[in-house]
Amino acid sequence: MTDFLADFTGMSESLAKVSDVIHSSIVSQNPIINDALSLLFASNGKMLRPGLLLIASQFGSAEEDKTIHLAAALEMLHAATLIHDDIIDDSPLRRGLPTVQSRYGKKDAVLIGDFLLSRSFLITAEYASPEQALQLAKIVSIICTMEIEQNTNRFCFDRSIRQYFRKIMGKTALLFSLACHVGAHEANVSRSVAETLRRAGYNIGMAFQIIDDILDYSGDETLVRKPLGIDLKSGIITLPLISALRKDTSGKLSELCNIKNIHHADFDGIINMVKNLGGIESAGNHARKFTNRALQEIMKLPSSNSRDLLEQLTNRLLVRSY
Amino acid sequence: MTDFLADFTGMSESLAKVSDVIHSSIVSQNPIINDALSLLFASNGKMLRPGLLLIASQFGSAEEDKTIHLAAALEMLHAATLIHDDIIDDSPLRRGLPTVQSRYGKKDAVLIGDFLLSRSFLITAEYASPEQALQLAKIVSIICTMEIEQNTNRFCFDRSIRQYFRKIMGKTALLFSLACHVGAHEANVSRSVAETLRRAGYNIGMAFQIIDDILDYSGDETLVRKPLGIDLKSGIITLPLISALRKDTSGKLSELCNIKNIHHADFDGIINMVKNLGGIESAGNHARKFTNRALQEIMKLPSSNSRDLLEQLTNRLLVRSY
């Protein structure tokens, strides 16, 4: 069970039910799949997407069994994309544990990701409306498109802030926004409340990804539970660097980024200059801007415990250290 | 468009429509996805799964737009599994052209497969009943499980015929049987006709996979359009070898299969002994047995042009050379 949302009133119990559904949905007759996935889901993910779905569903009246299953499907879909991401990035660690690919090899990792994705779609087929299932499939295809684009643009240091925002929207924010919308839809809330929740989810997702990208530069490795600088070293250009490059009047950062041989690149030098040029601070301001937009949307929601919960969560996500 | 089913009366036009749906469903804003997938689908797959769905739908009255879309979704799902298979097998060629992974690299190939799978689920969400969507997702998870099992058992030469049948059922036959069942379901045929079609599809799929595995030993490379012996060289043990090992009273084949170093293994020697021991013939007998079972089921169907078509197709698949 996650520890991130655990101390939010009432969330702990529901998320435990989501975890139960996940654990029973990933059972397979194959021991490798069982080992890989029980380990993955034992390792305390933040469970934000299911959390948002459940909070959104509290704005109306939802059938618990359905929301719990759909929340599980979202987390499984997210985890499937992580397994495949880790293949692409050659990541050794995720949530403080060896990644599926480093433990079972790339070949099995491809298939275990596919298995998990198909089990997620299986739940969706059983519990979601066709419209929601369609939205979910659409978002998976957008996530893939953005990841391919990111892969193509490795070590392209001239990315604009706008290109970055477009990427993180596809990679992260759309799924956050869908989580809120599915929860709202299941609870039969009014169209305007559902749209407000969707926009809140979108802005929370944008802020979340920016903070994630900041943590890759300035996080505490023991809290983040993966090596720092991994994005940069695999050529993924994120907001702290993009912001720092805009302030690099001396051209020194640009020079460091003119990488001819990845094995001789001065990544530590780049990270230090990003910090010195205020790239972290500037990215933080953007995260704050999206958080504020999310809070503005949240304030439009009917006053309730759930609204307070969503507000607390949104604020907490901004100042998180992992 | 496929040339395999093209000369079956009436199939050509419908399959062209399926191809159109596929081509419009794979369009993405990303040039790599577009290039990779248009190339893949330009390369004349056999279109058997869509073909079976369409033939099955002719046993009742089906809405054309729906069956065409579901047929497209099946072919896309199948192609997605091929892209990921080729990553796992390090295959250089598929349908006579470089595989997605050899052209775009393993990383993009993972994502392009995911993209295609999600687009397939997108069509399913829009056009299939929840029950069918669920079945499809279930089959994807079974295909993955079987592929992982196959991966685990590379170079395990003591596979039994029963284990082999179980594997090809999961890898291939279930999707063939679902293709028939979805077509039947869409056409509102009686439960008994639908079940007969499902069983026919299952047996056609079993025979199909056995023939595929035989062609890896004894096919004509220019017709099969991929290098021969690729299964064996990547350690996948199929029926011709399993059958030959059962006839290997001298123990010479077993000895050749005692591979200590894959780079010094005598694969050509194994292939020749499989042929000399009658492994191909014996596997062929199994294929004929499944074909006969399929034909028995087909004979139970109401007499019609569609039944004749299915019979012809089943016979043709047994004697195919590619």
CATH class of chain A: Mainly Alpha
How many domain modules of chain A? 1
Strand order across the biggest sheet of chain A?
1-2
- What is the second-level CATH architecture of chain A? Orthogonal Bundle
The low-confidence parts of chain A are: none
Q: Number of helix segments of chain A?
A: 15
The CATH homologous superfamily of chain A is named Farnesyl Diphosphate Synthase
Give a verbal description of the structure:
- 2 copies of one chain form a homodimer.
- Chain A is an all-alpha fold.
- Chain A has one domain: Farnesyl Diphosphate Synthase (Orthogonal Bundle), CATH 1.10.600.
- The first copy, chain A, has helices spanning 11-25, 31-42, 48-57, 64-89, 100-127, 130-152, 161-186, 191-218, 221-224, 230-233, 239-246, 252-257, 267-276, 279-299, 305-318, and strands at residues 93-94, 97-98.
- A two-stranded antiparallel ribbon of chain A has the order 1-2.
- The longest helix of chain A is centred in the middle third of the chain and has 28 residues, at 100-127.
- The radius of gyration of chain A is 20 Å and the shape is globular.
- Chain A binds chain B through residues 28-30, 32-33, 81, 84, 87-88, 106-108, 110-115, 117-119, 121-122, 124-126, 130, 133-134, 136-138, 140-141, 144-145, 147-149, 151-152, and chain B through 28-30, 32-33, 81, 84, 87-88, 106-108, 110-115, 117-119, 121-122, 124-126, 130, 133-134, 136-138, 140-141, 144-145, 147-149, 151-152.
